[in-house]
Specification:
The complex is a heterodimer of chains A (227) and B (368). With 227 residues, chain A is α/β, with parallel strands linked by helices. Chain A is built from six helices and ten strands, in the order βββαββαβαααβαβββ. In chain A, the strands form two sheets. Chain A has a six-stranded mixed β-sheet. A four-stranded antiparallel β-sheet of chain A has the order 2-1-4-5, with helices on one face. Classes of the chains: A alpha/beta (227), B alpha+beta (368). At the A-B interface, helix 2 of A face helix 1, helix 7 and helix 10 of B. Bound molecules: adenosine-5'-triphosphate (ATP) and magnesium ion. Chain A: This is ABC transporter ATP-binding protein.
């Protein structure tokens, strides 16, 4: 079943008389439980695509369907609500809130709703990420890799259908990187969560089902992975 | 979360709420200062606003007030008013049996309705003895039981009168009072009327003028009620001006909060972007930011009120001479107003930064 179905996405930026197509007609499909990586040189539009898939940004042209629902022209309010329900983000610079502990950071997306068992769930997510002994540490007391794992735990707290990760292993040694990727694979396989990871790291490609190459805002050759 | 954010930027939050604290203190203590000023002034004025003094108009060759005049005054005065006719005479008086000086003595029928005794008792009816004012008693060391000589006859002091209001024409401090029955004169030199309020006194004074000065300007009527009212209105204006000045300082405080909140939204741009990205609606972000502003305002306000109470105690100690006078309704009003002003200022100045933070596009905020 397709969770994402995007057709002919164009994102056009106008800066000082010049126009720049960060995305120049991209088709992108994603099945439930699929683990896909996006590769491409810097400035090729990877983050832009991820933002549009994650309803953070709107395409200039093209259509995007999420779970069969057309979300192309939705209001900010509706996009925000949908984001909260179906999407988890792992940002390029993790962006944890410095005042909050690891557990609280994981809780943040649902902090205003306070569903029962929130803290328990946040703890168990962190434990799964191997951070059982760092639950009450502040971000400035964590290493880069640990912060990254807190960020991943945060992206999973709302039980999303899609996790969008920008450079999830960029700050990790290959050992920790594998641990994270194992976890992603497990989430994709067991929980049927679709995962899109932007990466420069060839390690990632050992785990993914498919790699999409982006060059100057267009999809290059696509390759099915063996995994 | 708001609380955490404030503790993170402790120094800055402290400075911001310091502005509010100062603003609140300025408003509250200037307000209280005005109140204390007014209070100490009215305390000095005492009841003179309620008093009317009727005296014969010597310019028209009227030298005394008659029984009829007194009855007329009683008739036009309100039923609750005190009407006290007084006689005057200059007598040779000796306080120490050696030196004799000429002293104005007053004849009063019932001094108990005008004065209180500081020492001794004012007998009712007042038939014998003498009452002396506080200054005379101190000067000549007189106490109940002492004797003085009036026109060569010995009179016993019954009581020393309590100090009167400084500006009152009834002020007994330098007077010697004798029973009216000891005066041969039939007429009165003055009639005092004490009403229950300044406005009543004003009406009564007019009525007395109408009735006694009907055909001839027989009497002078002195009445301070309207003057006292005017003075009190002046004080109200002074107070308003003082508080207005203080409000400017609160305005400055508001701008400093605006600045703090703006800086914090710039600094926390990315965090706010994350919040938006993980599904916080604009109004959620708005709420969180406004909570911070409110918290700043409330904390600053509470601190300000506490400090102003201290200031108020000091102010009242020095102006009224009674620190506890700070616990008066008018002061509570100023404290309350200053507090709510502080909170409102901080919310209002938090509004724009909060709105700015909430309406930024998360993509913009999160781009590297
Ligand atoms: N708001 C914007 N205004 C103008 N140009 C933009 C804007 N956002 C992105 N771009 C441009 O769009 C192009 C794609 O940017 P994007 O961030 O998607 O690159 P990327 O593939 O994620 O690069 P990297 O690997 O360095 O993160 C870049 O050339 C960038 O300069
Ligand atoms: Mg990028």
């Amino acid at each position: 079943m397709k969770v994402v179905d995007a057709d002919d996405l164009v994102k056009r930026y106008r800066t000082g008389g010049q126009t720049l197509d960060a995305l120049a007609g991209v088709d992108f499909d994603l099945d439930a439980g699929e683990f896909v990586s996006i590769m491409g040189p810097s400035g090729s539009g990877k983050t832009t695509l991820l933002n549009i898939l994650g309803l953070l940004d709107t395409p200039t042209e093209g259509r995007i369907r999420l779970d069969g629902q057309d979300v192309t022209g939705l209001s900010d309010r509706k996009r925000t609500a949908l984001r909260k329900r179906t999407i988890g983000f792992v940002f390029q610079h993790f962006y944890l809130l410095p005042t909050l502990t690891a557990v609280e950071n994981v809780e943040v997306p649902l902090l205003l709703d306070q569903p029962p068992g929130l803290t328990k769930r946040a703890r168990s997510l962190l434990e799964r990420m191997g951070l059982g002994d760092r639950l009450d540490h502040r971000p400035d007391e964590l290493s880069g890799g640990q912060k990254q794992r807190v960020a991943i735990a945060r992206s999973l707290i709302n039980e999303p259908k899609i996790v969008l990760a920008d450079e999830p292993t960029g700050n990790l040694d290959s050992e920790t990187g594998r641990q994270i990727l194992d976890e992603f694979q497990r989430i994709a396989d067991e929980d049927d969560v679709a995962i899109v990871a932007v990466t420069h790291d060839d390690l990632v490609n050992e785990y993914v089902d498919r790699t999409v190459h982006l060059v100057d805002g267009t999809i290059g050759r696509e390759r099915k992975s063996g995994g | 979360m708001a609380r955490r954010n404030l503790t993170r930027t402790k120094m800055r939050s402290l400075l911001a709420s310091l502005g509010i604290v100062i603003g609140v203190i300025a408003i509250a203590s200037l307000g209280m200062f005005g109140v204390a000023l007014q209070y100490s002034f009215t305390q000095n004025l005492g009841d003179i606003g309620n008093q009317i003094t009727v005296s014969p108009n010597t310019a028209e060759n009227v030298t005394e007030l008659t029984e009829r005049d007194v009855r007329d005054i009683q008739r036009v005065a309100s039923p609750t008013a005190t009407v006290a006719p007084v006689k005057q005479r200059v007598e040779p008086v000796s306080f120490d049996r050696r030196t004799t000086g000429r002293q104005l003595v007053y004849g009063v029928e019932n001094p108990a309705e005008l004065y209180e005794a500081r020492e001794g008792r004012i007998t009712e009816p007042f038939r014998t003895g003498a009452l002396v004012g506080a200054n005379i008693a101190e000067e000549h060391d007189l106490h109940p039981g002492s004797t003085i000589t009036v026109n060569e006859s010995t009179v016993r002091v019954r009581a020393v009168l309590a100090e009167g209001d400084a500006f009152s024409s009834l002020n007994p401090d330098n007077r010697v009072l004798l029973p009216a029955s000891s005066f041969q004169e039939r007429g009165y030199s003055q009639v005092y009327v004490i009403e229950s309020s300044g406005s009543r006194a004003n009406e009564t004074a007019m009525a007395i003028r109408n009735s006694l000065n009907d055909r001839q300007e027989r009497v002078n009527v002195m009445e301070l009620g309207s003057i006292v009212d005017t003075i009190e209105q002046q004080f109200q204006i002074i107070n308003t001006v003082l508080v207005g000045i203080a409000s400017i300082s609160l305005l400055v405080a508001g701008i400093s909060i605006l600045n703090v909140m703006l800086m914090s939204t710039v600094e926390r741009r990315e965090e706010i972007g994350v919040l938006r990205a993980v599904g916080y609606q604009k109004r959620d972000v708005l709420k969180v930011m406004l909570m911070e502003a409110t918290l700043l305002g409330v904390l600053g306000g509470v601190a300000g009120v506490v400090l102003s109470l201290g200031a108020g105690l000091a102010i009242n100690h020095y102006t009224v001479g009674d620190a506890t006078a700070v616990f008066r309704m008018a002061n509570a009003w100023y404290l309350g107003a200053a507090f709510s002003f502080g909170v409102v200022t901080s919310i209002v100045s938090g509004l724009y930064p909060a709105w700015k933070a909430a309406s930024e596009e998360p993509v913009e905020a999160l781009r590297g």
